[in-house]
Amino acid sequence: MQISMKSINKSFAGNPVLKDAKFDLADGEIHALVGENGAGKSTLMKILTGVYTRDSGEVLVDGNPVNFSHPKEAEAAGIVFIYQEINAMPDLSVTENMFIGREVRKRFGVVDSAEMERQAEAILKRLGVRIPVRKAMGELSIGQQQMVEIAKALLVNAKVLILDEPTAAMTLEETKTLFRILKELKQKGVSSIYISHRMEEIFEICDRVTILRDGQFIGTRQISETDMNSLIKMMIGREIGERFPARGCSIGDTVLQIEDFTRNGTFQNVSFSVRAGEVLGVSGLMGAGRTEIMQAIFGYLPHDSGSVRVMGKEVEIRSPEQAKKLGIGFITEDRKTEGLMLEDSIQLNIGLPNLERISHHGVLDTKKDDEMAQSAIHDLSIRCSGAGEACENLSGGNQQKVVFGKWIFIDPKILILDEPTRGVDVGAKKEIYNVINRLAEKGVAILMVSSELPEILGMSDRVMVVHEGKVAGILDNLTGGDDSGRKATQENIMILATGGKLE
Predict the structure, then answer these.
(1) 3-state secondary structure 164-220
(2) What's the pTM?
(3) Domain range 244-327+411-503, its CATH number among 3.40.50.300, 3.90.25.10, 3.40.50.1400, 3.40.1280.10
(4) What is the pLDDT of residues 60-72, one digit of tens each?
(5) Is the pLDDT of residue 482 over 50?
(6) What are phi and psi of 479, to 5 degrees?
(7) φ, ψ for residue 111, nearest 5 deg
(8) Which DSSP symbol is given to 335?
């Protein structure tokens, strides 16, 4: 299927979001669509699939003008949008989710469950994935749910798949499976539009890339004829320099010491330390227990045994409030549900965790509240209309900066970062990396959980690898390792993450 979008314009409440944008898709290609958060990528695809109505412009499918008014119309034409946040029915089975709204029926309208299960098994087998069709959707990993969504699309003979940040919550193996499936579908003439902030993936899987900036078409390039720096410059309109800023922090004494930390059934005998000014990267496969270890340190999850020492003193942390009083901050993995009150203002989100600083005898000091918000906006380069703007109106990168702002003003001794740049564009990532480095320079001990190995290697002084709830090893990334092979490299991290041993 060939798609051509020409001179697409779209405004919301008088604010232009797309300005003369264009995009074209060829038969049997994987075409990346990239740009900073707010560049208009999702809006353009929602116009293609009938979620939004364009103000002007033209959409052609196989040379014929179309104007889909509903996603069902696009789906009937063979175009399916698989969203990052999967809209599944968690309590229904895989089969029921795949056939919802298109149930196979026998005589007298009786649902033919056996036939639906047969078809579901056949399509999943065709994709080469083993997922029990009677299993509840909510029991699957995010990666498995993505595979079910692809299988669901193929049930309606999709000719074009639109994937929005498909690997954001996938394990490495699930990502490999997805790439294999997309390549096989490409050979059968199925095209994919691939939206992602992960540059390495775009160069691995895609044939062409189209760049949007501020709602405008910047250009289309063959992947084989461009490089990462050129692509980033087109996306953000300037040279970004090195992706990861140079680290030159002076590392001090131990701030956090964890010994034999255990939560039965989740993680066992976890021991490590973090020093002032150090960034300890935490790596491992999805489900290895990385987040749970961090949540237990912060008092969000209970632990069964082990000790925690802060500044050399053993402490008992049973709640986030206790952790906060000890100078521990936690930037959570999911900013939308755990990190922010999206409908509320930047000022309120930053002020709430810092009420003790901006109030006197229980009365809010509005001047201090305003000064704190303005300081955060300035220091973190939060792009917004003002401190009163609702967080839901901000791009992903600016939302993440607000989350950082919440915790920076408690003057943390220890800051836990769980996937700090997930869903953040490449320009905002660099700004967040600079914030991390500035905090380290002030002596903050930082634990950074990340699924992106380039990020782990680019930002960490040491790397702790977690495998099935245990510390598989701690690798040196600051001095280049030693002769025993304990160097932090992608290969060594993956060996430990998958249960192997370093020679």
Answers:
(1) ECCCCCCCHHHHHHHHHHHHHHHHCCCEEEEECCCHHHHHHHCCEEEEEECCEEEEE
(2) 0.69
(3) 3.40.50.300
(4) 999 999 999 999 9
(5) no
(6) -105, 0
(7) -65, 130
(8) I
